[in-house]
Amino acid sequence: MKFCEIRAAESEEEIQKALELRRMVFVHEQHMFEENDLDEYDDGAIYLNAWSRRKDLLIGTVRCYRDKEKPNVWWGGRLAVHPDYRTRGIGVYLIRAAIETVKNQQASRFLASVQLQNIELFKKLGWEPIGDIFFFHGHPHQIMEVDLNVFHVSPQSARRKQQAVEAL
Ligand SMILES: CC(C)(COP(=O)(O)OP(=O)(O)OC[C@H]1O[C@@H](n2cnc3c(N)ncnc32)[C@H](O)[C@@H]1OP(=O)(O)O)[C@@H](O)C(=O)NCCC(=O)NCCS
């Protein structure tokens, strides 16, 4: 993506930037947590950070971590895009980067607890719901899974491809 680059955090400083953005979104915007959203899954998680190329500013983040009981199963979570940079494809870019990351870790399954209002976004990307909706910190969530054997195309690039085909 032209204006944004996704990199796995390599330093404590880069992890702290991700945690700051998460605090802004999940504590102050969504009021899902009172002070911070850290939990036991942050320890050892891979943080994928989306940086604005122009401003060296963190504009999105997502974490991926291994299931504690089933090591080949990975979870994605705490997906957050800075409010000023939403609906520009960064969320999708992060989800696709997370899929590539867990594939490189030889994951056999990739799951996420998705907030109700985001289920459609994930469905568009090929994720499927598993089980019933449940409440986490007062917010309805749905566990969703993506088939790691399928090649994933973003809605934007699918649209671009369709337009290119139609122009032929
Ligand atoms: C959810 C979130 C990460 C999406 O990030 P984003 O960068 O705005 O999403 P994108 O721009 O990549 O969205 C891509 C597509 O999904 C659509 N979309 C975005 N959010 C959506 C939603 N909640 N429901 C349905 N569609 C959505 C966009 O309109 C766009 O559609 P298009 O390709 O047809 O144009 C962002 O809104 C956010 O940080 N929200 C607050 C925290 C949160 O809810 N985290 C997710 C927890 S599961």
TrEMBL record:
Transferase found in the keyword field: yes
Domain called N-acetyltransferase: residue spans: 4-149
Classification via Pfam families: Acetyltransf_1
The keyword Transferase is annotated on this UniProt entry: yes
CDD domains linked: NAT_SF (cd04301)
Gene Ontology terms, MF aspect: acyltransferase activity, transferring groups other than amino-acyl groups
Domain of life from the UniProt record: Bacteria
Keywords: Transferase
InterPro entries hit by this protein: Acyl_CoA_acyltransferase, GNAT_dom, MSMEG_0567_GNAT
Full protein name: GCN5-related N-acetyltransferase
